[in-house]
Write a structure and sequence with these properties.
Distance between the termini: 35 Å
Order of helices and strands: HHHHHHHHHHHHHHHH
Number of helices: 16
Oligomer: single chain
Helix content: over 70%
Radius of gyration: 20 Å
Number of domains: 2
Length: about 300
């Protein structure tokens, strides 16, 4: 998920909102929501207080990853319109402050999650932060157009962490939730990259739109959208799914596929002339698509508790 940071102080004057912005709150909201769903739909009940504390530390872990990402990417963030007003490139928070803030939150969140829930969940959160910061941000992002494909795994781990909080392990259901986000990430980010290509080009980030062009990117968006469909249907037919999940999946998948087909057929001249309106619509809809699937899992769980949900 993309984020747009906001300013709250003059250059060189860090305010509370600047440190909150380091946490990438829009991205954190996705982390929190999917982790919460993973925890709630797990077959093992969790005490409400433990669940709330666990979600808090998962959120802080996601924020730590965001702060460390902003620390490392400050040089290229200065070159992109979408990110130039973030606290570090804007000069309101120093790179050292961002690094220290991120490392402190990472250590606190992982240790406290291990103590509040279980060691496996704490280690899983630590691995997720490592994957996002080291594997994606440091290694992949500036080296390969497959950056978002492989690196997208970091954003797909939160529901698995939520599941691990409840169960202490991994299951087919948590892997299906991972697959849903993992396959969703490329078309989500590539639809953004279609209308933000100049930013990535100026910063030297080898996004697919820069290295292979927009037409090829449109084809890959369609390919990943097609791959999303069986993943969403498999989750709907799993033990955490049910008829409601299936109905939501069919509707949202059909709309996503229609949008991806429209992008695939788009003429570049027409796209530029209308300001990439269809690309922006698909980007926004992709957020609704993901929210809709996980909201349906929550609703299915609620129905199951009343004796109406699931396939049984």
């Amino acid at each position: 998920m993309s984020d747009t940071s906001f300013s709250s102080a003059a250059p060189g004057e860090a305010g509370l909102r600047d440190f909150l912005a380091l946490l990438k709150p829009r991205v954190m909201s996705l982390v929190v929501f999917t982790a919460f769903v993973g925890l709630v739909v797990a077959p093992v009940p969790v005490h409400p207080f433990v669940a709330a504390v666990a979600i808090l530390f998962i959120a802080l872990g996601g924020g730590a990853a965001g702060a460390l990402n902003m620390w490392y990417d400050a040089d290229i963030d200065r070159l992109m319109r979408r990110t130039e007003r973030r606290p570090v490139p804007a000069g309101r928070v120093s790179e050292g402050e961002a690094l220290g803030f991120g490392l402190a939150l990472a250590g606190i969140s992982c240790v406290m999650l291990a103590l509040a829930a279980n060691v496996f969940a704490g280690l899983f959160l630590a691995f997720t932060i490592f994957f996002y910061v080291v594997v994606y941000t440091v290694w992949l992002k500036r080296r390969t157009p497959q950056n978002i494909v492989i690196g997208g795994a970091a954003g797909a781990f939160p529901p698995m962490i939520g599941w691990a909080v409840a169960t202490g392990g991994i299951s087919a259901e948590s892997l299906l939730m991972f697959a849903l986000i993992f396959l969703w990430t490329p078309p989500h980010f590539w639809s953004l990259a279609l209308f933000m290509r100049d930013d990535y080009s100026r910063a030297g980030v080898p996004m697919l739109t820069v290295t292979h062009g927009r037409p090829a990117t449109r084809g890959w968006i369609l390919a990943y959208t097609l791959a999303l469909i069986p993943a969403s249907l498999a989750l709907a037919f799993s033990t955490v799914g049910g008829p409601l999940c299936l109905a939501v999946a069919v509707i949202l998948d059909a709309l996503f596929l229609r949008g991806a087909l429209r992008l695939w057929r788009r003429d570049e001249a027409v796209a530029e002339a209308d300001g990439f309106a269809a690309e922006k619509r698909l980007f926004r809809f992709s957020l609704l698509w993901l929210f809709g699937h996980f909201a349906a899992l929550l609703a299915e769980r609620a129905l199951h508790l009343t004796g109406w949900g699931g396939w049984a």
